[in-house]
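2024-03-11 09:14:02 INFO receiving multi-entity request
2024-03-11 09:14:02 INFO entity count = two
2024-03-11 09:14:03 INFO echoing inputs for audit
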Amino acid sequence: MATTAQSVADVCRTARTASRTLARIGASTKDAALHAIADALEERSAEILEANARDMEAGAEAGLSAALLDRLQLTEERVRAIAAGARQVAALEDPVGELIGGGRLANGLELRKVRVPLGVVAIVYEARPNVTIDAAALCLKSGNACVLRGSSSAAHSNAVLAGIAAEAAERAGLPAGSVVLVSGGGREELVELATQEGVVDLIIPRGGEGLKAALKGVATVPVIYAASGNCHVYVDHSADLDRALAIAVNAKTHRPGVCNAAETLLVHAGVAADFVPRALTALRDAGVELRVDARTRSIAGPDLSQDVVEAAAEDWDTEFLALVLAVGVVDSLEEAIEHINAHGSGHSEAIVTADLDAARAFEHGVDAACVYVNASTRFTDGAEFGMGAEIGNSTQKLHARGPIGLRELCTLKYVVTGDGHVRG
Amino acid sequence: MATTAQSVADVCRTARTASRTLARIGASTKDAALHAIADALEERSAEILEANARDMEAGAEAGLSAALLDRLQLTEERVRAIAAGARQVAALEDPVGELIGGGRLANGLELRKVRVPLGVVAIVYEARPNVTIDAAALCLKSGNACVLRGSSSAAHSNAVLAGIAAEAAERAGLPAGSVVLVSGGGREELVELATQEGVVDLIIPRGGEGLKAALKGVATVPVIYAASGNCHVYVDHSADLDRALAIAVNAKTHRPGVCNAAETLLVHAGVAADFVPRALTALRDAGVELRVDARTRSIAGPDLSQDVVEAAAEDWDTEFLALVLAVGVVDSLEEAIEHINAHGSGHSEAIVTADLDAARAFEHGVDAACVYVNASTRFTDGAEFGMGAEIGNSTQKLHARGPIGLRELCTLKYVVTGDGHVRG
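2024-03-11 09:21:47 INFO inference complete, emitting structure
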């Protein structure tokens, strides 16, 4: 994979050419390629770890934080996990060729609406080198050529991982160019990649808000942005309060740094006197910093008053990604729905209720990718949803909403067969 | 519908508010509203025609072409046709609430993948005032509030049509703001509309390349562009030449001004000697200007040589939208596929063949929204495909590819129900 002397445009055109062949290849060849990649990763782990050590050394010299260095680091165990991930993707159902509609039209034409690969999918990612293989596996399985653009801090690791994947894929029968890496982590390369209209079909950024902003200004290629998750748990008047407590604590504390963690708890006034003191105590004991509105504070009572701070206006709009929770009291289900639609990011929203009408009103009224009734927001995940691995989570409404799995990496095609049909 | 004093942003926010209620309204109310709109249009046709006469007068003074004036003109008959169109949309199946997937997950959670409205859809269109009602009907039926932005040349007609629709819809039980018109046809208003991110969910332009280009530079709201149709008919070695002739002539001449008309005919060398003279003669006799490659010209022979001109390089990339056709000879099916993928716009592509392997290779290899086997490209159309009315035709690969019908005006939502489920 000699990409060093090639421009980003050259690399993308190589992938475009490969995509034409890839789109026609059956599942067994693609699956064999994913197994070959997994085997090669394990066989060549020494090479991978050596390259990773160079990145780690440079990262330490550059003063990367311990958290970033941990994301960057590969170990024998992590390489095995990456290989296992590729094998898991191989085991998923092939989305390509799935018949998603059709029939015989009035004039006798036979119409098939068929799922087909997008063509060339580019993944732009930061730090974690495992994304190199995760992304390549999902793209190849869905029949897409994959353009990878990692961060410069992982350049050595990514180059070896992508090189191993490209070689193994080609040996297993996939066309050359099915997996390509854009070398150079600079902004110039990002802009060049983001403007490969007609060559690259989709860009998926996996990284922070800075990366998304950088793409948003310049991209002419379609981008699916995984927006942040400002998720809510609403405890209805009719809620079973034990369930409500368990769900609120789980949604906030199970893994606070991820996008499906809750950031705001809303409590119906009718149960606030019972629920708020219990919930705040449990959340405080779990280490959660509580930012509450005036009604919550007054209900909390003197025992808890030192453990809560007054919520600022921006707290209702903030994805804390930490053990911090905004808590408010609302007078009605409608007020909760309005609050969520005004402040939420359309990711994952939960109601705890025993009332079927309330559940239905919440389901219909809340404008989000995933709406939960009596369950934690933490379940939003491709694997949890039975879609297999995901490459991200979309809060957009077009094309993909919710987990971006293999189907979401595809488009469709209408195939129409006649026996000489002309339009009269 | 007093929109004159409101900013574009105000108008869009009105629609946003309406969309929250609209999304929850059942099919019977929406259908009743569409019938009420149709009835009101017929009852108030005098008012419509009077407003239209003012636009026609201004258009004539401004020197609009006869073709543009014809597009602008409304008559009693045309108003009845517009009303009939709204009733036809009412008769279509409601896409909202359709269950498109789901089941019980391993942990007992019940997951439903449900089709839901996008929210607020803006249609930006030119000249034809009938689009006002066509667009409103499709948006309302799919549960979306509709923001309309027509051209200034049809301002009076559009204002009356949108006003009638808004009044009738509201009287029939839809929320105020379900149909709103942006007044002012200037570029400033277009930019303001195109940047209503988070308020408007989708913009669909219906107009020429200038309109698309104007949006492309500024839009932060997602846009589905109906790209042009540079469509091909490829006559394979094995083709039934009578069918091939009928299809080529139909695809080029049935309605040359539309996007699914053919612009290039490719003929396999193995049948060129038989087919080219017949096809060129028939096309010439149908009034088609023929722009041919050197091989086609030499095969055409002296009889036809005065009726053909040499194709320029750009002819292979041009959507003529007129009785003009590029004609070329290729040595293989693969060459035809490569030509189509290099020059086509991914709209509608046809092969005429008796060979099943050739049909399959073409279906799989051609990267287009619609691929035809032994049928004319002219069938690409929502109504022909059994989808009911369409609001346009997408050559994008994300979200909607092919006809944009009611389903394509929707997004999806995952509704997940548990009994206190938390993630462990």
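2024-03-11 09:21:48 INFO post-check: The two ends of chain A are 53 Å apart (CA to CA).
2024-03-11 09:21:48 INFO post-check: Chain A touches chain B through 64 residues (CB under 8 Å).
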